[in-house]
Amino acid sequence: MEPSQNEFLVRTRRVLCARRWQVFRMLLRTEEYPFFLPQIRESRLIERTKRHARTHWKVDLENIPFTWDEEATFDFRNFLIRFRAVAGDLEKFEGTWKLTELPSGDTEIACEAVIKLGIPVFEAVAGEIVAEKVRRFFDALLEAFEEELVRRRYHGAGNRSLKRISGFGVIGHPYNLQHLAHFFETHERGRAIRSREFLAKIFELTPSFEADAIKEFRDSNGKTVNGSIIICNIIPDMLDLDIARVVDKVVDACKLAERRGFGIVALGGFTSIAGERCGDDFLKRIHIPVTTGNTFTAALALEQVQNAARLMELDLGKANVTILGGAGDIGSACARGLADKVGTITVTSLTGKSFRWIKQVIAASGKAKVRTSLNNRVAVRKADIVIAAASAHQSIIDVRDLKPGAIVCDIGYPKNISYSESDRRDILVFSGGICEMPCEFQSAFDHGLPTEKVLYGCFAEAIVLALEERFERFSWGKGNITKQKMAEILGMAARHGFRPAPFFWGSRLMSDDEVRAVAVKA
What angle is formed at CA 395 by the lines to CA 389 and CA 398, rounded to 5 degrees? Predict the structure, then answer.
């Protein structure tokens, strides 16, 4: 389609995650368009035959009222629609919708149209402006089609809807610009990033993207599931600077998982903090079930702590436990899980606003004595066990403050304590909330883990739920992690070959004998 003099060509295309016949049927139902896109004030059917339709349109074209009558013909064999305005505001407005089936089963929808303003005195000045507005209108319409198809996929009636979704997405992010630079340098085969300032600006503009497609993740029974690692371009500092923009980026990452038709997505690291901080407002913007993975993370951490206590012959019933960030979602879950097993639990927080609530939570869960503190360094000095569950940008304690024989489980992201340099061999510090998987989880993105057989519990929860075909918000909302739910996710994980990861400090794996030796040196 070539435009003549004073005519302008408009083109747009998009890939929609639906079969070609589904998209074609949506295109034919023009009377439903105003429900998808508010700019369409009217799309009234005048007459209709099997291969022909005449419609009347009123559209708000970015504050320009645009009205026309349209004739369309339908080529069902080639999935093609030809349309032209037979009356209206433009002298010429005609084009085609063409649908192409892709090998993936998705559909590429392409629109091509020629417009002519028909007002010679304004043609050269305003013609391109109007053409661009028409193009953006078509872009918005295709985006609305995609949103409606996704809504139907996740909220359709009965089991037919569930059969259209499967697999998992995991959303991660760099923990600082240095980590991001390392990823790009590795991905680009060693090419150095010369300017961190340039990288920071490009990083700010970049939308979420798929770093790796995980094909046929296989559990211990041979069952497979597909998934994807999605990088959300945020760093923790951004939550304090522009939470609205961070939430937009997290929503975009979820939308990417929706386009892939995944059954569930895990919000890793600070993406879960951003999502839960906005609560229902965040959930209203997406269709895919989301989980923070905090239930599995907390359950794994408790299993690892109890295993460490057993190896070091520590009497849990008399143990003093300090939970850094103990009023948070994972920290409070750990407090509930240990309340009937240990002697004393000390909870720390930045502000102390949740101290009254966490005291009630622990009292309702067991007989442990409860203490609170606003000072992390003081709180850890007499602790037999320290669980670091605060998501912090930098280290929150000094290992020199720990007493000999202390067990330190570092759950937070990024890992601060377990990756700090220390020559102490009379304490056990390890990365917690991490599982060992039945197969390797290969990724171009450096997750800061020592082997490809271990993975963060928040990510692994989504894989386990996908294998179980449990597409639900399993972990969502502060205070909803119960002992029963932790036992449930551990049971599901065990069925598929997931178990708590071995102990490692930084990148150094530790054997059980090395753990036992810590108690001797203490």
Answer: 100
Boundary-marking domain end, from 160, 175, 207: 160
Query: Which of helix, strand or coil describes residue 435?
Result: strand
Q: Are residues 190 and 286 in the same domain?
A: yes
In angstroms, the CA 453 to CA 441 distance is 6
Whether residue 223 is contained in a domain is answered as: yes
Angle (nearest 5°) at CA 409 between 407 and 369: 70
Q: Is residue 75 part of a domain?
A: yes
Distance of CA 154 to the CA centre of its chain: 16
Residue of 390, 431, 428 whose CA lies nearest to 407: 428
DSSP 8-state code for residue 349: -
Residue 359 lies in a domain: yes
Angle between helices 483-495 and 457-468 (to 10 degrees): 70
DSSP per residue over 199-264, as a string?
Answer: HHHHHHHPPPEEEEEEEEEE-TTS-EEEEEEEE----TTHHHH-HHHHHHHHHHHHHHHHHTT-SE
Are 260 and 167 in contact, with CB atoms under 8 Å apart?
yes
Q: What is the CA radius of gyration of the chain?
A: 28
What would the pLDDT profile of 232-280 be if each residue is shown by its tens digit?
887 766 666 678 888 899 999 999 999 989 999 999 888 888 888 888 8
| Rounded Cα distance, 252 and 263, in Å | 16
464 domain residue, yes or no = no
Q: How far apart are CA 173 and CA 153, in angstroms?
A: 27
Burial of residue 351, with CB atoms counted within 10 A of its CB: 0-12 exposed, 13-18 middle, 19 or more buried: exposed
Per DSSP, what are the bridge partners of residue 55? 45, 70
Task: Check whether residue 179 and residue 268 sit in a common domain.
Answer: yes
Distance (Å, whole) CA 496 – CA 435? 12
Q: pLDDT per residue over 338-397, tens digit each?
A: 999 999 999 998 888 889 999 998 999 889 999 999 999 999 999 999 999 887 666 778
Please give the Cα distance from 27 to 334 (Å, whole number). 52
Q: What are the tens digits of pLDDT across the range 110-122?
A: 999 999 988 776 7
Q: Closest by alpha carbon to 236, among 250, 246, 244, 248?
A: 246
Domain region containing 408: 295-433+501-521
Contact indicator for 380, 404 with CB cutoff of 8 Å = no
- Determine how many CB atoms are found less than 10 A away from the CB of residue 129: 14
Q: Are the beta carbons of 266 and 461 closer than 8 angstroms?
A: yes
- The tokens for 401 are 């403050």
In total, how many domains does the chain have? 3
Supply the CATH number for residue 408's domain.
Answer: 3.40.50.720
Q: What global pTM score does this model have?
A: 0.86
DSSP state of 321: E
Q: How far apart are CA 184 and CA 192, in angstroms?
A: 8
The answer to whether the beta carbons of residues 418 and 429 sit under 8 Å apart is yes
Residues 379 and 302 grouped into a single domain:
yes
HEC string of 76-108 equals CCCCEEEEEEEEECCCEEEEEEEEEECCCCCEE
Q: Which two tokens stand for residue 22?
A: 């589904």
